Amino acid sequence: MDIGPIVALVISAIILIFVLSIFFKSFFTIEQAHAGVVQRLGKFLRIAQPGLNFKMPYLDVVVANISLQVQQLDVKVETKTKDNVFVQIPIAIQYKVTPDKIYDAFYKLSDPVKQIESFVYNVILGHVPKLTLDETFDQQSQIAIDVKNSLDASMAEFGYSIVKSLITDLVPDEKVKAAMNDINAAAREREATVSRAETEKLLLVKKAEADAESKRLQGEGIANQRKAIIEGLRDSIEKFTTSVEGATPRDAMSMVLLTQYFDTLKEVAGTNRSNTILMPHTPNALAELMEQFRTTLITGELATKGANGSAAATPAPLSRT
Questions:
Q1: Averaged pLDDT, 47-71
Q2: Looking at residue 68, what is its pLDDT?
Q3: Per-range mean pLDDT, top range of 26-30, 285-289, 307-311
Q4: CA distance 196 to 202
Q5: Phi, psi of 39 (to 5 degrees)
Q6: Does residue 77 contact residue 89 with C-beta atoms inside 8 Å?
Q7: What is the Cα–Cα distance from 132 to 114, expressed in whole angstroms?
Q8: Helix, strand, or coil here: 252?
Q9: Strand, helix or coil at 275?
Q10: CA triplet 10, 12, 15: central angle to 5 degrees?
Q11: Could you report how far apart the first and last alpha carbons of the chain are, in Å?
């Protein structure tokens, strides 16, 4: 049996496989926003750009596929403030590889994450211990800016740029946090108490003003009412003395008083909310009442005349003989 054709076929297959392997190993692709580091026999050769690239098979090797996208590193630093309060500061560092410094980013740093963390600790521990807890809360943005500037200057020589540094929170000890909450609650309660007191004061002032205004208007109404009554009585007395021959103002006043007396009795009898009043109500009692009215009027007139007469009279001087 002739084995020559079989051997030739096997050799041809081996050659074909070797050629295909060389062909496929000669091309490689790099994704968008990435860069490839190509070495030849262990030595840096070039930076491969995104897309289809060619390399020498078995001589060139793509040792790294570096991302050029912005990445984020979360670092949590625990430190003590100037007023001896321990606080945890979470910081988010957004960084990326500079496109024209891919060589430095790959060959100068073996662990960029650890390097960035070390710089963050160095900056935070150099700033926060000089500030009180309240100042640390107030200067969060400034601390973040200082961290970014320091990191950017330090990492630039290694091929990294710092996009942004963010302090996401400040976490003091639980006891300190509870004390701060108590202080804020007490301050807000004090403000609420002052506000309530001012409101009550305003209500009392307005109520007093309204009461004073009501009493003033009520007094004016009573005064006007009495004035109207006096004017009405005067007109009635004048008409009565003019119409009735021989009648005097005293008689008219007695009649008015008697009329008021009967009106009062009517008012007392007409309401169910009045207390019981026992009054003498006989013809003799009415006569006595009228006599009392007259006596009161006469006594008032005599007292008025006597006062005027004594004031006007002057005693005559005594003459000595």
A1: 90
A2: 92
A3: 26-30
A4: 10
A5: -115, 150
A6: yes
A7: 29
A8: helix
A9: coil
A10: 110
A11: 205
Cα–Cα distance, 90 to 87 (Å, whole number): 10
If you write DSSP's letter for every residue of 8-28 in order, what string do you get? Answer: HHHHHHHHHHHHHHHHHHTEE
pTM, to two decimals? 0.52
The count of other CB atoms within 10 Å of the CB of residue 112 is: 19
49: confidence class by pLDDT, cuts 50, 70, 90: very high
Going by pLDDT thresholds of 50, 70 and 90, the confidence category of residue 318 is very low
Contacts of 121 (CB under 8 A, 6+ apart): 75, 77
Asked if the model's pLDDT at residue 187 lies above 70, the reply is yes
Helical H runs in the chain?
4-25, 102-107, 112-127, 133-138, 140-155, 174-243, 249-270, 283-312
Angle, alpha carbons 133-138-140 (nearest 5°): 95
* 51 phi, psi to nearest 5 deg: 115, -160
The answer to whether the CB of 158 falls within 8 A of the CB of 109 is yes
Give the angle subtended at the CA of 125 by the CAs of 124 and 129, to the nearest 5°.
105
Per the CB < 8 A criterion, the answer to whether 89 and 170 are in contact is: yes
> How far is it, in rounded angstroms, from Cα 50 to Cα 62?
13
Question: Beta partners for 79?
Answer: 87
Contact (Cβ atoms closer than 8 angstroms) between residue 89 and residue 76: yes
Give 298's pLDDT tier (boundaries 50, 70, 90): low
**CB-based contact 39:61 (threshold 8 Å):** yes
Strands 60-67 and 34-40, by their bridges, are antiparallel
Residue 316, C-beta contacts closer than 8 angstroms, at least 6 positions apart: none
Residue 136 has pLDDT above 90, yes or no: no
Strand partners, 76: 90
Contact criterion met (CB below 8 Å) for 137 and 77: no
